[in-house]
Amino acid sequence: MRFGLIVLAALAAGIASGAWIRALGPGPLNDAAHGVAVVGSVWLDALRMTLAPLIFALVVDAVLKVAEQAAAGALARRVLVSFAVLLVVACAWVLGAGSLVLQLLPVDVASAAALTASAASDPGAEVVAAAPVDMAAWVRSLIPTNVIAAAAENKIVPLVLFAVILGAAIARLEPVRRAPLRELFGSLAEAMIVVVGWVLLLAPVGVFGLALSLGLDTGFEAVGALGHYVLFVVSMLVGVIVIATLVLLAFARLAPVATLRALVPVQAIAASTQSSLATLPAMLQTALGPLRVSPAVAEFTLPLAVAVFRMTSPVGNLAVALFVAHIAGVELSAGDMLAGALVAIIVSISSVGLPGQSSFVISVAPICVAMGIPVTVLPLLLAVEVLPDIFRTIGNVTADLAVTAVADRQKGQERQSETGSAP
Hints:
Layout: H1 2-24, H2 28-49, H3 51-70, H4 74-104, H5 109-115, H6 117-120, H7 135-141, H8 147-152, H9 156-171, H10 175-201, H11 203-218, H12 223-251, H13 256-273, H14 276-288, H15 295-308, H16 312-328, H17 334-350, H18 356-371, H19 378-382, H20 386-421
């Protein structure tokens, strides 16, 4: 939270300084400010540098993780199916509701143009700006004829697909042959996360440089778009929190009021810590206590959920992508949205447990690249991620308890069926 507030302060200081220098007019101070603003572009390039190797390693590692959990038994398979269903529902929600909300409540044209001004002037922006393609061409493009070239050209969807196939193939190997590759990709992913962490340590400096450039170009006109962004993403996250709560109410063994009351302490801890992992003890206490989930189900499902499941990740990340597409004037086809949802679900499995700023960059940038949306505005949005991140965590822990309730109800029905069929 403290680091996020520092980055937010850097954003505000950068915009305010740039707007003030802009008002002063041409002169030595203006020239010096443009020189300082270059630091933001360099920092953004450093973030871009990590994308391809990081995502490839994370996806292979995530596929192996899910394959290993699925092999653990029937309960694991049922829980993973519940995860998959809820992730698909979450993607459908944000793509449908999000597109509608942005149509009904569009961002002010001047404010949107101000926010994207720095992106339009960035020479690297055209790397991710893709022209719309028909469905046949899109399907054919999923198979990379040259994986190295796909990575170099930021073609994330074919790269992710190849990583999924490779991960599935490694999972089929004998344990003695699988272990070294599992260690290799796991270590590579951890090493790239360290690199991202190093880059993000400079986030206050990088965001200040980008915000300074924004202030120099547009003054305070972008502030309205940033406020619209926060409200839009939070509204999408609130929607998925409602969906997860309804699932919990449908499968919990308590009355609705008692179930909602049991949720309050868990959600309060989630909001204060912004960490599903830190909330795990409270989730276990609530599941075993008020929700009356069997220990065997709760003690297996909740740690697994924290490890590989974040229902709000695709929602929040796709909401960011939709917003950036909206202000950048990028028309998204059905294929673009499908590609974005696919990448969002896969990456959500990989990014669990990472710090908030790392998760934002690692999760959102590949989705934008896959959908043909410029990524240059993302660092400015990262600076105002403090409030949405609170709702992300609340939604995640609510969904974790919902899946646990579903698994417990299924386990209970299975026991009743076995008892009823016993001689």
